[in-house]
Specification:
The complex is a heterodimer.
Chain A: H1 2-19, H2 24-31, E1 34-38, E2 47-48, E3 54-55, H3 57-70, E4 76-80, H4 86-91, E5 97-98, H5 106-110, E6 114-116, E7 121-123, E8 125-130, E9 144-149, H6 153-164, E10 169-174, H7 177-185, E11 191-195, H8 196-204, E12 212-214, E13 222-224, E14 227-229, H9 233-252, H10 259-262, H11 269-275, H12 291-299, H13 302-309
Helix pairs in contact in A: 3-9, 3-12, 9-12
Chain B: H1 2-11, H2 22-25, H3 27-60, H4 90-123, H5 128-142, H6 146-160, E1 183-185, E2 188-191, E3 193-196, H7 212-242, H8 249-266, E4 269-272, E5 275-277, E6 280-282, E7 285-288, H9 289-315, H10 319-327, H11 332-362, H12 374-386, H13 389-418
Antiparallel strand pairs in B: 1-2, 2-7, 3-4, 5-6
Helix pairs in contact in B: 4-5, 4-9, 4-11, 4-12, 5-9, 6-9, 7-8, 9-11, 10-11, 11-13, 12-13
The chains are: A alpha/beta, B mainly alpha.
Chain lengths: 338, 423
């Protein structure tokens, strides 16, 4: 009896400790590390490389924030989360940022008490099938067996899409992307559905990527972005404006290559304000004036990160599409730094 | 009179006044003090836990409500024992998951019992090879975690079996078994199902609407079993009175099978065979990979434990019992069936209850192979889509507790019937 009280009290105090973090910035600075929730492994977005160092598009966001806050892009503790565990990990304080292909939806924002700070990848849900099946459109998938990751918006979109189109399907629920890949390749499902970017990333890791086609239908809007806990606006602002700094840097032509020369002063006041040579924007949320410069120097601007991790030149081979700057016909649009 | 009262006064020592320190130093009170103290601490701990939860929920801005059970679930479930679609409620989805849990638990309990009894008896066999084989089965299966067995069976089904497309074409790479009636694919096993040409419709009881035709099948079987028991009791009574046991086997077969055959013919029962149609086989009954992996994994794993229970039960019966039976001229089979097993049951049943409970609780591993049980529906997708972790988990714990207590209660009733009757 005594032991159970002790264990209970211990568990409860651990539970309570998770919530006692209204001031995430101070906690992170004290800890000297940003805890970043990522996927359990999705090539190009977040996956450890051969040396065990996490790399990818979502990882770069966390590295930029660590650079801005702690002056060290490597001061990130990556916590792999599944579709099912990610929100609990964030709500309980296990991670400070969730940077894991998470779709921004009303109920997650409002009911699950997350704060989505922006969108770093505009995506949509698609279907991948084996070329041998001879399927050219998602409308021909009546009766197919579909592999689907549980606990995702794709699961709900899938149900809606097949119902609206009057088609039947057999869902095979799966925990992680790696498991889905194995089931799909073994042929125990005809179709794998997830965000198109995820399909491209998964396909890139196949032995024969050419044997698989991604069908033209995109059945949903999936704005993916980093999320933080609701209720700590300072921390949300830091994450949000670090992301905007990366996007604005591309628009203004600040790259990791020329950032040092630009820091000596330019004629463009907005570049000067971002790089901290004019005004003191960083002090407004408790950082020094160099914060954005460090964030950009960590992995380059948005465009550099994109092309290094998931762009045309990589095996993932994603085109910029909607994720081009607003000046290039895309949706990326950072508010003014002033 | 006076003497008695005198004796009482002498034998009773003067009652000492109660002092507070006696609570600690007097043996008569100490144990009560300790119990009260710990009860108080326990309640304090519980109160603190609840208070903490309430405060933290408030700090997170979350309320405590089960209203989410009435909202549309939005997700699909592959194995549906009752009607369900994505527009139905989370509560309905949880009910589907609950029924899937029960289906799996029943199937696995039956498999574990059958395997366990066979392996337990054979492990005591005088045949060296048979005995050692059973030892290998028991030791291999019970010493590797059940989750691994489930995943292994799942992987065998997915990786080693042919895809449905392999059954297609003029010279298919794979073919169906048993005269084109059973298809084993990497998406599960398709077997023929029994369909009625003249259906009796459905009955609506609360949230479920079972098929009347099938309810009647179970009713007829139940009546048959009761009638058969009457027949056997009568035979035993005759044997006790006259010493001659009347032949009952053909009557038993008639009582058990006759009505059901007549019923099936009356309703025009026929088999529906699975057929390759589109992407998959259609028709027949589809046992998914996830169900088969869970069923074999749990059944064979737990069967090893049941085998040990059975063996210990048999070994608990003194050797004199079988010697006496042999002396009376009973054959080994009859000795086992009439003398040993009935006595062994009272040793076997109590640990068997634990094994049934283990199977039921281990069904919650279903998520590992995507089996849509209670844990995967209510405790997985519903919690994830609604963010109601606390409510979902509490509800799930309550349901598992209720299932386990029911099994335990039913098995205790059975146990009290087979246990040693002392007269």
């Amino acid at each position: 009896m005594k032991k159970s009280v002790f264990v209970g009290a211990f568990a409860a105090s651990a539970f309570a400790a998770g919530f006692a973090q209204a001031q995430t910035l101070e906690t992170v600075q004290e800890r000297g590390e940003v805890n970043c929730g990522v996927s359990t492994g999705l090539a190009g977005f977040s996956a450890p490389d051969a040396n065990g160092v996490w790399q990818g598009f979502d990882v770069a966001v966390c590295r930029a924030i660590a650079a801005a806050v702690l002056d060290d892009p490597m001061a990130v503790n990556f916590v792999p989360t599944t579709g099912q565990t990610r929100f609990s990990a964030l709500a309980s304080g296990e991670v400070d940022i969730l940077s894991r292909n998470t779709t921004w939806t009303f109920s997650r924002d409002v009911d699950l008490r997350l704060t989505f700070v922006g969108t770093n990848y505009y995506d949509g849900q698609g279907f991948m099938v084996n070329r041998e099946l001879g399927v050219s459109s998602a409308t021909e998938l009546d009766g197919a067996t579909v592999c689907i990751q549980t606990g995702t918006t794709t699961e709900l979109n899938l149900a809606d899409y097949f119902r609206v189109n009057g088609m039947a399907y057999e869902p095979v629920p799966i925990e992680t992307n790696a498991e889905a890949q194995q089931q799909y390749l073994a042929g125990s499902c005809d179709v794998y559905t997830t965000d198109v970017s995820g399909l491209a990333a998964t396909r890139a890791s196949f032995e024969n990527p050419g044997d698989h086609v991604i069908l033209p239908e995109v059945i949903s809007k999936e704005p993916l972005g980093p999320a933080v806990r609701h209720g700590d606006d300072t921390w949300a602002d830091i994450v949000q404006w670090t992301l905007f700094a990366l996007i604005a840097a591309e628009e203004l032509g600040i790259t990791s290559a020329n950032i040092d020369s630009l820091k000596e002063g330019t004629d463009n006041p907005e570049i000067n304000r971002i790089l901290g040579t004019e005004g003191d924007l960083g002090a407004m949320f408790g950082l020094d004036s160099d914060w954005a410069a460090r964030a950009i120097a960590a992995g380059g601007n948005y465009g550099e990160i994109f092309s290094a991790t998931i762009g045309d030149q990589t095996p993932i081979g994603l085109a910029r599409g909607l994720n081009a700057q607003w000046t290039q016909g895309g949706l990326l649009y950072a508010p003014p730094f002033r | 009179m006076s003497t008695t009262s005198d004796q009482t006064t002498i034998s009773t020592p003067p009652k000492p006044a109660f002092r507070l320190s006696m609570l600690l130093y007097d043996q008569r009170y100490r144990s009560i003090t300790i119990q009260v103290f710990f009860l108080f601490m326990l309640m304090l701990g519980a109160a603190w836990l609840i208070d903490n939860t309430v405060n933290n929920l408030r700090a997170l801005g979350k309320d405590f409500s089960f209203a989410f059970l009435n909202n549309p679930a939005g997700y699909d479930i592959n194995q549906r024992p009752i009607e369900y679609n994505s527009q139905m409620t989370h509560g309905r989805a949880a009910l589907v998951g609950f029924l899937n849990t029960i289906i799996l638990a029943v199937l696995a309990c039956i498999l574990a019992t059958v395997l366990g009894v066979i392996a337990g008896v054979l492990r005591l066999s005088n045949n060296w090879i048979v005995g050692r084989l059973m030892t290998v089965y028991v030791e291999v299966f019970r010493n590797i975690p059940t989750l691994l067995w489930i995943i292994i069976f799942g992987a065998i089904m997915t990786e080693a079996m042919p895809a449905p497309s392999a059954f297609r074409g003029d010279t298919p790479a794979a073919s169906m078994l048993f005269n084109d009636s059973v298809a084993i694919t990497n998406r599960g096993v398709y077997v023929p199902s029994i369909e009625f040409a003249r259906d009796l419709g459905t009955l609506t009881i609360g949230p479920v609407s079972p098929d009347i035709s099938w309810l009647l099948v179970f009713a007829i079987i139940a009546v048959g079993i009761v009638a058969n028991k009457k027949l056997i009791d009568h035979a035993t009574a005759v044997q006790n009175a006259t010493g001659v046991r009347p032949k009952t086997w053909w009557k038993s077969i008639l009582i058990l099978l006759g009505p059901i055959v007549v019923y099936f013919i009356a309703l025009g029962a026929h088999l529906e065979y699975p057929e390759l149609r589109g992407f998959n086989f259609a028709g027949g009954t589809h046992m998914r990979n996830s169900l088969i992996a869970m069923w074999l994994g749990l059944g064979i794993y737990t069967g090893a434990f049941v085998a040990e229970n059975v063996r210990s039960g048999i070994l608990a019966i003194s050797r004199g019992q079988s010697e006496a039976a042999f002396a009376l001229g009973l054959q080994p089979g009859k000795t086992m069936r009439l003398i040993i097993l009935p006595q062994a049951l009272r040793v076997i049943i109590p640990p068997l209850i634990s094994q049934y409970l283990n199977i039921t609780k281990n069904t919650s591993l279903g998520l590992a192979v995507g089996y849509m049980d209670l844990r995967s529906t209510l405790g997985g997708i519903t919690i994830n889509q609604t963010g109601r972790e606390l409510e979902g988990m509490l509800l799930m714990m309550l349901i598992y507790l209720a299932i386990s207590l029911t099994i335990s209660g039913a098995m205790n009733v059975y146990n009290s019937r087979v246990k040693l009757k002392e007269r």
